[in-house]
Structure to design on (180 residues):
């Protein structure tokens, strides 16, 4: 299998700051289904790929892996998302391309799903920072806050009840004192 050549994108792209460091951004609208960029790199046997320790390995199949660590591989800046607007596609000749999964607006960050294996190994342990996961966590916090407010209200009522007998006890003591 020969190494794929760099292909200039049909749509201009920009590398910019993102939540996770750097990200890949659309400069103009990209219609759904359009080619965005090729995931370019050295083609390695899966064995060789396993020996390498970098985050930019793209597993094509059980035999081949692309080492996309080169900075010339602009596609390496496209981050993972659990609600992506792009997707990767492996061509029969082993080329990996990124396509628009939705209509992408200018300025949108281009993201695709890195797949279960990558997610479990590199993203999940640190906590995914994609829009979907951030929304999910915010929703969870909101629920937890509601629950803790309800709990506080309940324990406040309990505390009132617990305090009530003491008051009565004090009143009794006062009465006793008054009798003496
Ligand atoms: Zn996510």
């Amino acid at each position: 299998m020969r190494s794929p050549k760099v292909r200039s994108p049909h749509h201009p792209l920009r590398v910019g700051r993102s939540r996770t460091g750097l990200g890949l951004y659309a400069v103009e609208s990209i219609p759904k289904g359009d080619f965005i960029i090729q995931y370019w790199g050295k083609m390695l046997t899966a064995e060789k790929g396993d020996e390498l320790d970098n985050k930019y390995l793209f597993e094509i199949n059980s035999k081949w892996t692309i080492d996309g660590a080169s900075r010339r591989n602009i596609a390496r800046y496209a981050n993972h998302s659990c609600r992506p607007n792009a997707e990767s596609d492996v061509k029969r000749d082993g080329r990996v391309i990124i396509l628009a999964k939705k209509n992408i607006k200018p300025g949108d960050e281009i993201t695709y799903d890195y797949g279960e294996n990558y997610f479990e190994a590199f993203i999940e342990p640190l906590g995914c920072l994609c829009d979907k996961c951030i929304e999910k966590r915010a929703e969870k916090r909101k629920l937890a806050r509601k629950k803790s407010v309800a709990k506080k209200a309940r324990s406040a009522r309990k505390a009132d009840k617990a305090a009530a007998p003491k008051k009565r006890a004090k009143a009794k003591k006062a009465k006793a004192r008054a009798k003496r």
Q: What stands out?
A: The chain has two domains: 13-127, 130-180. The CA atoms of residues 68 and 76 lie 6 Å apart. The first helix runs from residue 46 to 51.
